[in-house]
Amino acid sequence: MKALAVALTLLPLAACGPRVDEMPQTGAEARQRAVDADVVRQDTGAEIQDRITNEIVRAEYTCLNGERLSVVFDNPRGLATIRMLDGTAVDLRQERAADGIWYRSDRHELRGRGSEATWTAPDRDPTDCRALG
Asked: Which of 84, 132, 78, 100 lies closest to 92 in space, CA to CA?
């Protein structure tokens, strides 16, 4: 009799919504549960890499020789367009790099890793550059 009284007391609480310990049965339920719990989704390294390799990324570099480069990395096409302060634009093709980036044309090259890069252009010594931001 006492068990029945406890069950009847808890019954209205159970009707308020899904139990916390119940697992969602569908993807929609899982997403809704995450939203309800105010959970922020963290990207995995693989998701970040996939987004980078399938998007166009813009970067600004400042170089030790005073040059400033505006670079558009068109990752789906394997191209980088370098625009210099004087308005000159150069298209470079992506090369396979063991680590980091490597883009080149017949006369220009941009190689780097992380925020560091080396810019090579005709009639100038190669210069070290750093991505801004």
From this structure: 78
